[in-house]
Amino acid sequence: MKKDFAIILALLLLPLLLRSSFIVSVATMAVVYSILSLSWFFMEKEAGWTSLVHSIPFGIAAYALAINPVLIIPAFLLSLLLFTALSLSGREKFVFTSFITAIVFWYFSHYITLSVNGGVVGGEEGFSFLSIGLWESYLLSSSMLLLFFTSFALIRKSGLGLKIEAVRDDEFAARSIGINAFKIRIVSFAISVFTATVAGVCYLLYFGHVSPEIFSVEIVLLPFVASLIAGNRWASPIIGSYIIVVVSRAFSGILPETHLLIYAAVLMLSPKLKRWWGASAY
Amino acid sequence: MLQLIDVSKVYNGNVVLRGINFELESGFAGIYGPNGSGKSTMLKIIAGIEKPDCGRILFEGEDIAGKTPEEVARMGITIVYQIPRPFKNMSVIENVATPFILRVSYREAMESAMEICEFVGLKNKVNLKAGLLSQGELRLLEIGRALAAQPKLMLLDEPFSGLDVENAKRVRRILRKIKREGVDAIVTAHRMKLLRDIVDVSYEMRGGKIAEG
Amino acid sequence: MISALLTAIFLSFFASAVILNYKIGRLLNLSFASIFTLGAYIYFSFNPTSALLLALIFGGIMGAIVSAATRKLSVAEATIISLGFSIAIEESLRFLYRTSYYQVMETNYVELFGEVVSIHEMLNGAMIVLLFLAFAAIPLSRRGFELKFVEDDWELAEMYGVDTSRIRFLTISISSSFICLSGAVLAPTQSLFPSMGWSSMVIAVIIAAIAALAGNAGLRKYGLTIPIAIAYTAVLRWLL
Ligand SMILES: Nc1ncnc2c1ncn2[C@@H]1O[C@H](COP(=O)(O)OP(=O)(O)OP(=O)(O)O)[C@@H](O)[C@H]1O
Ligand SMILES: [Mg+2]
Question: How many CB atoms lie within 10 A of CB A269?
Answer without folding.
Answer: 16
